[in-house]
Amino acid sequence: MAKQYETVIGLEVHIELATKTKIFCGCSTEFGSAPNTHTCPVCTGMPGSLPVLNKQVVEYAMALGLAANCKITQVCKFDRKNYFYPDNPQNYQISQLYLPIARDGYVEIDTQTGKKKVRIHEMHMEEDAGKLVHDEWDDTSLVDYNRSGVPLVEIVSEPDMRSADEVIAYLEKLRMIAQYLGVSDCKLQEGSMRADVNLSVREAGSEKFGTRTEMKNLNSFKAIAHAIEGERQRQIELLEEGKEVIQETRRWDDNKEHSYAMRSKEDAQDYRYFPEPDLVPIVINDEWIAKIKAQQPELRPEKLERYKKEFDIPEYDAELITESKKVADLFEATVELCGKPKKAANWIMGDVFRLMKEKGMEPEELKFSPEHLAKLIDMADVGTISAAVARKVFEQIFTDDVDPEKYVEENGLKTVNDEGAIREAVEKVLADNPQAVADYKGGKQKAFGALMGQSMRALKGKADPAAVTKMIKEILGK
């Protein structure tokens, strides 16, 4: 009988904090600027420059720790992690090893077998490194130090996850918490959320952990899921062949769907950590913790309860809408403007989600304004435009954030309420389709659908279907 294996996974998740300036200097953290334009002597590691801690970083890290049920370390400090790499300008990184800001927390995830707690070993603050840009044409590597010194919180989980599905659920939960708190936008494609996967396999039922590998370079949930499956299979094959799994850091290549060894996995002693001499310890008193707790915004569980009571929308809708803070904010702003929660929910659940799926978009990429969606809901509601026209207009709102009133006016899309115009169109359709008229009068209901379709087309979809139906029946009944 073939051996059964269990996968054991722990994660190191880096979340870039959404402060305006870097962790130890006043340089901007804005993403996407020209290389090396957000730099100074501190974040490029110039001799004699000294770091000064950004208080907002500490408060964001505390907020994240509290939201993930962690204990805040009331006297914490920074340490130097020494390693040599071109994107690391000082040849060390200021991080936290001995006294990280938060410890012993957990987040709850939904799995196929029910709810599960994934324990968080610790969260620590640190500075990000710069970015190496490899130019294959010139066979050179260039360094961009814009990211150097951008504040990070690293969240280290316990090895509590057992599948790619659980890992994705855990990451989605962390991303949701960070976005709801407003401490990070967590855009994987921009690197503001990154995950390293520590994975080992062991025989099912065994208590002893197998040898773990760490996988880096994972910048999408899809890549993470593929990497986990690929590494699990690789380790099982090695064990089946009687070979050893080597503790090492591996790099995932998403294009080739394959990982390859980068270096042997370091232990803490390899980094020769020692207390950071240029920064004093951080003392966090009870009042400061209480202040951060009091400032915590409404998180998803409270929002869910409020939606069900205040807006009377189905639980399923409320759950999907609150999965993303961006979508929840859009929904609430739309409702505030038009006062129609059920209709706003229907538009978001229907057309917004459909178009996002078609275009492969994340909620954070939504650009249209709640004002324009609310206007459209009102226009469809009072019959200024038909339901079919409303959907077409919404596609323009979705892509170009057009003002629906102007767009409808400019493109002549208003509902035709003129009885004379409807009668004229219907009479022409009936005259042009004598066979369909005869079929309908002979009892064939399908023929009515054909006449209805032709009439709506003749009116360019701008008439109220109920009015057209009534008109056809009235003329045919004579």
UniProtKB/TrEMBL annotation:
Its EC number is 6.3.5.-. One of its GO terms (molecular function) is glutaminyl-tRNA synthase (glutamine-hydrolyzing) activity. Residues 329-476 form the Asn/Gln amidotransferase domain. GO terms for biological process: glutaminyl-tRNAGln biosynthesis via transamidation; translation. It comes from the Bacteria. Signal peptide: none annotated. Pfam families: GatB_N, GatB_Yqey. It catalyses: L-aspartyl-tRNA(Asn) + L-glutamine + ATP + H2O = L-asparaginyl-tRNA(Asn) + L-glutamate + ADP + phosphate + 2 H(+); L-glutamyl-tRNA(Gln) + L-glutamine + ATP + H2O = L-glutaminyl-tRNA(Gln) + L-glutamate + ADP + phosphate + H(+). Keywords: ATP-binding, Ligase, Nucleotide-binding, Protein biosynthesis, Transferase. Heterotrimer of A, B and C subunits. Allows the formation of correctly charged Asn-tRNA(Asn) or Gln-tRNA(Gln) through the transamidation of misacylated Asp-tRNA(Asn) or Glu-tRNA(Gln) in organisms which lack either or both of asparaginyl-tRNA or glutaminyl-tRNA synthetases. The reaction takes place in the presence of glutamine and ATP through an activated phospho-Asp-tRNA(Asn) or phospho-Glu-tRNA(Gln). Belongs to the GatB/GatE family. GatB subfamily. This is Aspartyl/glutamyl-tRNA(Asn/Gln) amidotransferase subunit B. It comes from Mediterraneibacter catenae. The gene is gatB.
